[in-house]
Amino acid sequence: MNRKFAFFLLTLAGTFLVGAQVTSYELLDGSYFMDECIICDRLTVKQPLRGTFDLVLEQDTGNYSRYSIRNVDFTASPAFAGEVRLTGEGNYVRIEEVALLRDMDLALQVKDSLTNCLAYFTNDTRITTVPFPLIQVDLTQTNGTVMQTFSLYLMAAPLREVWFSTARDFVSTNRPGPDSLISAGDLISNRGRVVKRNAELVARLGVMPVVPDLGLDSVQVIRGGEILYSIPQNVFSETQGLIQHGDLLSDRGQIVKRNQELMAGFKLSKADDVGLDAIQVMPNGETWFSIRSNVVVNAALTLGRGDILSDLGRVVQSHKELMANFQPVVIDRDFGLDALCVLPGGEIWFSLDEDFIDNQLGPIQAGDLLSNRGYRVFRNQELVRAFAPKDPTLDYGLDAVFIVTDTCPPKPPPRITKWVQSGNLIHFEWDGEGDVFQLESAPGLPGPWLPCNPIVPGLAGDAIYDSTVSGMGVYRVRQW
Q: How many Å apart are CA 430 and CA 145, to the nearest integer?
């Protein structure tokens, strides 16, 4: 976990602090809340549960790890008495010896229009088959009554934000004027903000005349906030010449790799552009990707549009292997591979080109985010929910995905290189080996620290300095 920060003090020299390892978690699809009455006739319904919490490492002796759980903020809906809000804290212990064991205790304030009480929860069983850092646990209220007892099922992953693009445009009802149109070429966040408009991504490509939107087929943010991506169409650039829909591009105006370079290891007889639907540059520099249509290499090998391929000329995972933990009703079908993200622990999150029906999970949409472990991470409607789309029931697709997580490997701390103050506005620039960054401030050491701006793929940000609050401003840059 990366917990190194660069500090800049307006009245002191730069310094460093080491804090507790805090990992932000988010509840995934399938988490639920239940309100049961043992002696009543009312129907017990599993209410979908969403929300976040922080996991703070307190003790680690190898096989035994103890954490505190802070800032629990869950919401269950729909509910009979309106939306249910659960807030509080707790503890989590995991033991990795002969079996994987874990214990969780939560003290949560449960509040809706009819209820406002403190509920204590603990897990029903200790054994888990889910590898850490995923957390999967059933919890039951220990101070419940025959009239009302709560239970929770939590499936959570270390996650701060999901950045993604959709396959179709949509209208956001909580954004003003022209900003309400979200393009299929925009890079957006599940927190309800636009990370980069498509025009910003392609601005340096030299495409003339300027095209309103070139689309966005794949994306990854790499060191220094550089954004790698592909587009779903061929265009002509005055600086780069013909740009193919299968080329890997950079928001810094470069063609990182031609599609033919990505495919060179397979030694195809024809050097055609076979498209680029998903991308992941691995830590060792190897590039994993998917293509838009099947390609016959020889009599023994056909590359499928749902396979994960490598620019080293190998099939990393066939589509069948990627889908091994799902149970599609239609077997031996390649559903395509539209988006791809490899998490630090090796788990793969992805989306497909086509809908399918799973014997366990039911209908799966092409825009859902899935895991190769066989579960649905988020429904498409949940990914776009913070934008309040005009039609919240539609599947808007998922063409590209990038995950911001606290479990990224440690890197050297970022360094603030420049600051310019104009009135109460301070412009900061920094350098660092992280992929994404966030500027934070505090009235003094040791905090509390609050974000000055959202997480960004860049090396600059602004802060508003209020001299009436404190005579000293303390700033740091976080990186992931």
A: 56
Do the domain assignments include residue 114? yes
Using a 10 angstrom Cβ sphere, with 0-12 exposed, 13-18 middle and 19 or more buried, the burial of residue 215 is buried
**Percentage of the chain with pLDDT > 90?**
82
Do 127 and 265 sit in the same domain of this protein? no
pLDDT confidence of residue 18: 42
Residues 145 and 169 in one domain: no
Distance CA(139)–CA(242), nearest Å, equals: 57
The Cα 328–Cα 93 span in angstroms is 35
Is residue 24's pLDDT more than 90?
Answer: yes
What is the rounded CA–CA span in Å between residue 245 and residue 191? 29
What does the pLDDT average to over 258-285?
95
Say which DSSP state 389 is in.
Answer: B
Whether 410 is covered by a domain: the verdict is: no
pTM: predicted TM-score of the whole model, two decimal places: 0.94
Question: Final residue of a domain: which of 142, 157, 172?
Answer: 157
Tokens 């060792």 belong to 284
Please, how many CA atoms are within 13 Å of residue 130, restricted to the half-sphere of its CB?
18
Judge if 129 and 232 occupy the same domain: no
Q: Are residues 167 and 142 in the same domain?
A: no
The three-point CA angle 341-344-345 to 5° equals: 110
Show the CA angle centred on residue 135, arms to residues 132 and 316, nearest 5°.
Answer: 50
- Owning domain of residue 196: 161-404
Strands, E assignment, 77-115? 84-96, 100-111
Q: Supply φ then ψ for residue 199, to 5 degrees.
A: -60, -35
| Together in a domain, 150 and 208 | no
Of 124, 157, 190, the residue that ends a domain is 157
Q: How many domains are there within the chain?
A: 3
Tens of pLDDT, residues 167-220: 999 999 999 998 999 999 999 999 999 999 999 999 999 998 877 799 999 999
Is 344 contained in some domain?
Answer: yes
- Residue 189 contacts by C-beta under 8 Å, 6 or more apart in sequence? 161, 162, 163, 164, 195, 386, 454
Residue at 409 is within a domain: no
